[in-house]
Amino acid sequence: MPAKVDMDKIVSLCKRRGFVFPSSEIYGGLASCWDYGPVGVELKRNVKEAWWKVMVHERDDVVGLDTSIMMHPGVWAASGHIDSFTDPLVECKSCHLRWRADAIEGEKCPKCGGELTEPRMFNLMFKTSMGPVEEEASTVYLRPETAQGIFVNFENVVTTSRKKLPLGIGQIGKSFRNEITPGNFIFRTREFEHMELEYFVKPGTDEKWLDYWVKERFDWYVRLGVKKENLRLRQHGKDELAHYAKDCYDVEYLFPMGWSELEGIANRGDFDLTQHAKCSGKELSYRDAEAGEKYVPYVIEPSAGVDRSVLAFLVDAYEEEEVEGEKRTVLHLHHSLAPIKVAVLPLSRNEKLTPLAKEVFKRLCPSFVTDYDDSQSIGRRYRRQDEIGTPFCVTIDFESLEDKQVTIRERDSLAQIRVPIEGLEKVIEAKFKGEAFDASTLWATRQK
Ligand code: GAP
Question: Whose C-alpha lies nearest to ligand 1, atom 19?
Fold first, then answer.
């Protein structure tokens, strides 16, 4: 079953409305690098906040962390990334394009049909040098996952947070991978953001906690509006497990190019803490004073990509429909993810309407991310707000000058209600909390 929207339409909407631009565009762009525009940055922040809220703030068994991108090179030797974080690479002898050997069919170059070299293992970590001297001793790596910053701080966090196990440590931050074949817009890039939780548990309880987190993470996407039929779980086969994993499930999403990984939830066992203890010489175990036990915890790791989640939310929310004979493109984003919550739209740019419309804008600003727009026709402005997923538009017309009331238009149903300006923010607040958008008592242009 193909996804309902082509990737081209998503890329074009993102460019047209300011979600995502090609990086360094005026210089011709840089392959697989993207910049988030004014509404894109809001969407991305909302995705991260939605994750942090349920994964860190709403739990008493999880704390947050923010570690550095560059770490001691010993970290990557211990974690296995120097030896094992590789993909098999083949190069075309004619056009010199490089491919991931496990991602192509046949033995010829998919681009020109040329002969391919034998596969060689290619390390995906970006190297750079620290300090003024460019020599081997100063080589450092840009982290390919945020997880290692958490493992090496395990002792610091347990001591300072005074928490007992099970204990989770969450982190959101940039990761870098020199992917051989990046692509599909922001799905696979060389620079991206991770949202990772390392959940430390007593050995023997790990399978139970893996099941728990697989369900939690699947449900997180559903609660944020992703259609259940576009999500599925897939357990990794033994031959595809990462070098550190005992078991792993992917939450997959039906992207425009087909079912693909959205998030991985892995049972990392005690691999990382044991490795870091061995290589650093520091003991990394947990002492349970009450039970009189000491052990190296196992780790369950839900690891999601911010950018990949943003793409899934965009694809899932996208709809083209016909309204009164006209085509409308709309993003049915969950209101907590919508970049702009309310748009204030005076019917026209008019010296009588502007002061009242500005007053309404000022009134709403402290409570909601609010946009003010008085250029072009009202129809075009509604269309723009629909395309960026704004849940509510507030329109100020000439009657508003008399009755001090405004019209609120709801994005999905297109129903409209007329309400007093006094207390407007409370009405909108109630709608965000789920109060019905009851147009029947006032007036409605259309109801689904
Ligand atoms: N610490 C475990 C880990 O990093 P992973 O399966 O390699 O596991 C987890 O990555 C998630 O990070 C993926 O499910 C995906 O959402 C995101 N991700 C990984 N590589 C990415 C890339 N090159 N571009 C965008 N997102 C990526």
Answer: 305
